[in-house]
Design brief:
Blueprint (H helix, E strand, L loop, with lengths): L15 H23 L1 H22 L6 H8 L8 H19 L7 H11 L18 E4 L5 E5 L7 H17 L5 H15 L6 H15 L10 H7 L1 H12 L10 H26 L4 H10 L7 H7 L5 H13 L3 E4 L6 E4 L2
Antiparallel strand pairs: 1-2, 3-4
Amino acid sequence: MRQFNYELLKDRQWDGEVLDLVAQIHEYKGRQELYLKQRPAVLDKLVVVAKIQSTEASNKIEGIVTTSMRIKELYLEKTTPRNRDEEEIMGYRDVLNTIHESYEYIPLRSSYILQLHRDLYQYSAKSIGGRFKNTQNFIAETRPDGIRTVLFIPMEPYATPGAVDEICDSFNRAVDNCIIDPLILIPIFIHDFLCIHPFNDGNDRMARLLTTLLLYRCGYVVGRYVSIESKIERTKETYYSSLQQSGIGWHEGENDPVPFVKYLLGIILSAYRDFESRVDIFAQRLSSLELVRKAVTSTIGKFTKSEIMEQVPSIGKSSVENALNVLIQEKVIERHGRGKATFYTRTD
C-alpha cells in the first residue's frame, strides 16, 4: 500500500525552474504585504469579485454552470437555487466563505476535510456530503469517438480514511519542522489528495478549496484578491495534463510530482502578478473610460469584455461596454466576432 512521508522531500533536488518560481512568489508575497497595509480600501473591492469568480470557475470546470447573473445573485444571497447545479454552486460559495473568514482556525485534519465536504453538499439532495467514498471510483475521459477510457484508478475505499489521515499528519509535520518550502509541499499534498480521490463526488472542487486553505494558512493570501480557480479553469487542459503526468507510478511511490508542482506554482505566480496590476489600476483616481483604457493597454493579444471587467471590478458591465465602444471609435481597439464569440484586439 502507498505510504506518505513528506519529510523525505528534504533530500530531493529541485530543478532551477521550480526554485525560480518559488523565489519569485516569495518576492511578490513581500510586496503584497505592503499593499495590504497601504491600500486597504482598494483591496476590499477586489475580494467580492474574486469570490464570485472562484465560485463560478471551480464549478464550471466540473460542468456545473449557470449564468453569470445567477452566480452573482446566488453569491449575494439575493435568490434561491433553482436546480441541482445551483445547489452545488451555493455549497461551494459557503465553503469558500468559511475558508476566507476562518482559515486560521481550520487545521488540516481529516475530520475538518469531512466537515468542509459536508458543507459543500448542504443544499443538495445527495446524501454523500461529509462521507468518504464507499465504492471504487475512476478518473476517466470520453474520447471524441465516444469511447470512455480510464486514465487512473484511485485508492480503494477501504484504504481511503487512513490515507487521508496520513497525508494530513505528514503535511503538518513537514510544515512544523520546516522540512521543505510550503509552496512545493502544497501542490504535492493536493496531488496526493486527488490520487486518493477520497469522495464519491466533489474531489476536484475540494482539492481547489484545500489549495486555498493551505495557501492562506502558510501566509499566501493572493487568492483572496485574485481568483486562482479562474486561472485554473482557463488552463484546465494543462491542469489535467500535469496531474496525469505526475500520477504515473503513483501507487508504487515512483511518480514525479514536478509537472504538477510547476503548474500550480505558475498559477500562483500569475495571480500575484495580476494582483499588483489591478491594485495599481485601482489606486489611480481615473474615470471609467481611463480605467478601461489602462486595462486594455496592459493586455496582450485577444481579450474579452469579461477579462477587462476582471481588471476593473469597481465599475459595472455597462460602463465597461461603453468604454470599449469609445475605444473602438477612437480606433484604439478592434472588435472581432459576434455575440458570445466576441473578442477584441489592440490596434497599436
